[in-house]
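tool_call: predict_structure(chain=1)
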Amino acid sequence: MTAKELIERELPGLPGWCTVEKGIRMSELARGAKLCMELGVFGARGLISMAASLREQGFGHAHGIDPYTAEAALEGVNAIENDEWWASLDLGEVARTAQVSIERLELEPWAKIIWERSQDVVDRYEDESIDVLHQDSNHSEEVTCAEVALWTPKMRPGGIWIFDDTDWPTTQHAQRELEALGFKMIEDHVSWKVYRKP
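tool_result:
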């Protein structure tokens, strides 16, 4: 089964919001990558999409960072309805579903979930070591800006930064910070954008 076929078959049944079309594009962007990173995994739609491409090419790793805690989901300032929704979730069950999906699809050699906050694991990665990063964790201005500051040095020159929910008011400052660091937007899908590091 090709990466595209796996994405088309599996993504609609997994928790989360990454569409089949976005998953296929993420898979394409991951081709040739040695290290892909996802900040915010939830049901692992994005992580599985990238890992499927890595399996197809025969090398590379995709790491998903997500603590799966309400405390992390509620950091910073977000809309009240957003906070209420996250507080009501059984994130432990979502995490189990994500891990089981990776195992069921036999993607474990390529995909790994790290159950921690993105801010707490960044120092484990070398500067200029990441080829593709998908930013899709807590969408508050505070967290998105912190992630841009912490993770952009970890991107290799020419690396790809996929920014989710770029139409949210709370992500606008972080997008401006990314551009101020020299990242160029190369694709605009309205609700998500693709940037390239110079």
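agent: The mean pLDDT is 95. Proceeding to next step.
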